[in-house]
Design brief:
- Strands 1-7-6-5-4-2-3 form a 7-stranded mixed sheet.
- It contains 13 helices and 12 strands.
- By secondary structure, the chain is α/β, with parallel strands linked by helices.
- Helix 1 (4-14) crosses helix 9 (253-290).
């Protein structure tokens, strides 16, 4: 597969042209990549008005994913906002979105910007606020009893702990009720290239956002917005307009080259490498389970250890790995999350995990998922006067804006919701010291 963006930039870099255009480094080497860092010069195309090399590269990506695919250089956050905008654009009146509670904070940012209505979906049970496994039976029941159907249902799959929803079943329920299914597939760009695809669009989703940089060999910030071909009412121009509303007018050509080169890598031998590594991972997970570790994920490229069952808190396991020169993706009191790739060193990981002695299980339970009362919409709350207070002084206050960091960027309380006793228990358990509330 060709790489039109990379080819253009390489040729330009080798031309030693006098650069009387942005950016200000003029191609002079400071960090080593500046000659490849360009702007929308003649021939370089333009991301949101693509007619040349970028459009050609996006067509390559679309062929690989089997659905119209559009580039983002500002992560899935940009794509999430764009697909929610597309729902709002086509809705009659203010859009209503039903969403699994474990949304990334970019969903709440979109709620502030777009002012759609949100109704939260909660699982009957889940082991962490990071997970929200909505099943088809529950969704069917909720849709049957509601008077006002949502414009879309929004789920996060895979979630941060590596659990994958039954997208096919959820899509069938949604479409039976005339509702779109949107998927935050940020952690699952690679799912398309498994021997049996778990790519949300293949399973019936209408739109999904995928972070290329999370699980594919792409620079940080590279992502895709995928649109089902069934959505004939959404044009390419609609998608580009949506993305442009939430993106910089100076997109990174370094990230665009990375997305472009990923097409070639995927089309060459990535699927074979992934297939081989999937078998290695299955064996590896079986072996560490026999060693006494408890895993909670069902995703191929993720290992999520229930740390307390092994006698440790997740952040303590992360410290031990760090002492052995292994950096994890995320750790909290409950879990250690490791994200791998087909060339990850499983042997080194196994040697370190094998050395960690199992202890008596820690019986301290995680707090229940919070279901706070909504007082204002996220948009209303975000424009009110605010102050930052210690968690110990926040009972009964209204959160102004969710300021949770990334990772995991999953809010315990959303902007406009009342902080109740259970929310405080969650804050304290996850070591959150302060919050921003309405004055």
């Amino acid at each position: 597969m060709n790489t039109p963006i990379c080819d253009f930039v390489k040729k330009y870099a080798e031309s030693d042209s006098l650069r009387l255009h942005m950016p200000g480094h003029k191609g002079k080497s400071l960090l080593g990549f500046e000659s490849f860092d360009i702007t929308e010069i003649d021939g370089a195309d333009s991301l949101y008005e693509a007619e040349g090399i970028i459009k050609e590269s996006e067509k390559n990506a679309s062929l690989l994913f089997g659905s119209p695919t559009f580039y983002s250089v500002e992560g899935s956050s940009q794509c999430i906002k764009a697909m929610l905008y597309l729902v709002c654009q086509k809705a009659e009146g203010k859009a209503l979105i039903w969403a699994g509670r474990n949304v990334h904070k970019s969903f709440l940012s979109a709620a502030v910007l777009l002012d759609f209505e949100t109704e939260w979906l909660y699982p009957e049970y889940d082991f962490s606020y990071l997970s929200c496994r909505i099943n088809a039976e529950y969704l069917e029941k909720e849709l049957n009893k509601t008077e006002k159907k949502p414009d879309a249902v929004y789920v996060t799959s895979p979630d941060y702990t590596g659990n994958i929803s039954d997208i096919r079943a959820l899509a069938e329920v949604c479409h039976r009720h005339g509702v779109m299914l949107l998927v935050d597939n940020a952690h699952g760009a690679y799912l398309k290239f498994l021997e049996n695809s778990l790519f949300p669009i293949d399973l019936g989703a209408d739109m999904c956002a995928s972070s290329a940089h999370k699980t594919l060999p792409v620079l940080t910030g590279g992502a895709y917005l995928h649109i089902s071909e069934k959505l004939s009412h959404i044009s390419e121009s609609d998608v580009k307009t949506a993305l442009s509303l939430f993106g910089s007018t100076s997109p990174s050509y370094l990230i665009l080259q990375s997305l472009d080169m990923a097409n070639k890598i995927i089309s060459d031998d990535f699927k074979d490498k992934l297939s081989s590594f999937e078998k290695e991972m299955k064996k590896f997970k079986s072996e560490i389970t026999e060693q006494g570790y408890t895993l909670v994920e069902d995703e191929v490229l993720k290992i999520t250890i229930d740390a307390k069952k092994y006698g440790y808190y997740g952040y303590k396991l992360a410290d031990i790995l760090k002492e052995n020169n292994i950096s994890c993706e995320f750790a909290d009191p409950d879990f250690l999350v490791l994200m791998l790739a087909p060339d990850s060193d499983l042997k080194k990981l196994w040697e370190v995990l094998l050395k960690i002695k199992k202890k008596e299980e820690i019986s301290l339970p995680s707090p229940c998922i919070s279901k706070p009362r909504r007082i204002y919409s996220p948009r209303e709350a975000s424009f009110m006067q605010r102050e930052t207070v210690p968690i110990s002084e926040s009972l009964g206050r209204i959160l102004a804006v969710s300021t949770v960091g990334c990772p995991p960027a999953v809010p315990i309380v959303a902007g406009g919701e009342e902080i109740d006793e259970n929310a405080i228990r969650c804050f304290e358990y996850y070591n959150i010291k302060n919050c921003t509330v309405i004055k």
